[in-house]
Amino acid sequence: MPYPQVLRDMALFVEVAKRKSFSQAATALDMPVSSVSRRITQFEAAVGLRLLDRTTRKIALTPHGEAYLAQATRLVEEAQRSFDDLIAQAKGPSGFLKVAAPTDFWVIQHLSGIVSEFSQQHEHVHIHLDLRASQVDLMRENYDLAITTDEPKEASLIVRKVCEVENGLFAAPAYLLARGRPKHPQDLAGHDVVLPVAATSATWQLSRAGETVSTTVSGRISCNSLSLARRLAVTGRGITTASLINVERDLDSGRLDPVLPDWLLPPTSVYIVTTSRLLPAKARRFIDFVTKRLNTVFSSAARTPELDPAELRERPALVRAARA
User: Fold this and answer.
1) In what residue span(s) does the HTH lysR-type domain sit (predicted)?
2) Do 84 and 99 lie in a common domain?
3) What pTM does this model have?
């Protein structure tokens, strides 16, 4: 079997094995399903071993297939990366980059600008930014990477922690005027909260200078969106949780006030997830660019020149967290 054909068939086997589907591999490679199936059969015949068990419902790796997949994956990824690096040396990173990202407000406000800046600097990379409320299957849905605030549990995924975003409590001034300002986390039990989860109650852990307090809160409104929870809080429906970067404009305009500003909730981590450490130049360049820009955005989140020093002293914990 000629050497280039071996590499092509090896790459084809890796696609089918990872997706456990001839049709999905065919779609990813823009090939007829019949061609994919025929070439895998020919490849198995050439090596003299059965690598895949096929049924009408699914595909499973044989023991030989399991052993071969690990080696083949590494070789295919290294070959692809070497090829991409050659192309990148000639004209810079290029190709189609499919990125999944959360629907949080900061994505619309900041990530869109970061992607726009990256696109201006890398004219040969086409970026598709797909906002998703839930985690995606990177392999099956053909994503190059995902930006997420939910750490994936799959051991096969490569997870890079980009930064941490500090969280606090916020409410509309009208709500606080009517219901009073909590002085301690335990006071939250007597307040309405807008929960950004599907629940009627929740336990919040707030920390200050090494002290941590757990308190149970409840409210009449909940939702599955941090952005919607923020908007509901602006209308005076109760106290909600948010990162400072998501409520900067609301604080500056007076639509929201910090609640218990010395106390912080556990931070939210931002991750970039891929299926491999061996990435093409377009993905590596994008990850480096986004990581640097996001760290800059979050580290400067509290630099609000519109606020006078007295206002900044009223929310020291949030300012410290954003500048850390």
Assistant:
1) 7-62
2) no
3) 0.67
